[in-house]
Design brief:
It comes from Carboxylicivirga linearis. By secondary structure, the protein is an alpha+beta fold. It is built from 5 helices and 4 strands. The protein has 2 domains: 58 residues, no CATH class; 83 residues, Sporulation related repeat (Alpha-Beta Plaits, 2-Layer Sandwich).
Length: 145
């Protein structure tokens, strides 16, 4: 049971990697100056991990969090979204901004985080300029994490 728990924790920690072809082999690779890891597990675990990686690739990302700055619709929606994006870039030039249109709403979101807690420092800074911004759950691309 103890070994199974360690494997599950390892899978959760590394299982989101879309780059690894076989996580078990990657972890067990001998690297100079590092310790040796040997994993004894059922072949079904590799299958489940490969299935999870493929599903994440199919969905285009993983569940994560972003900070929503704007959501609007109507004739002014797009213009307001672009104005918000411009303002964010002026104040936070390194911010990863996502502008989306999902009819009828234009949305401007910033950042990509695995959990809500990681978004809080930027949320605090953004509140000065966008007092109504808040953290939302959504799909984030692995490359952005």
């Amino acid at each position: 049971m103890k070994h199974f728990l360690i494997i599950i924790i390892t899978c959760i920690g590394f299982g989101f990697s879309t780059k690894a072809q076989n996580l078990t082999e990657e972890v067990q690779t001998i690297k100079e100056g590092q310790g040796v890891v040997t994993i004894h597990q059922d072949q079904g675990i590799d299958f489940l991990m490969e299935t999870m990686v493929k599903e994440n690739e199919r969905k285009g990302g993983v569940d994560g969090y972003q900070i929503q700055l704007f959501s609007g619709s109507g004739p002014q929606g797009k213009r307001n979204a672009m104005d918000v994006k411009t303002k964010v870039l002026e104040e936070f030039p390194d911010a990863k901004i996502t502008t989306t249109y999902n009819p009828p709403f234009w949305r401007v979101r910033v950042g990509s985080y695995r959990n809500k807690h990681e978004a809080l420092p930027l949320l605090k800074d953004l509140k000065e300029f966008f007092p109504n911004c808040y953290v939302v759950k959504g799909m984030v691309r692995m490359e952005e994490l």
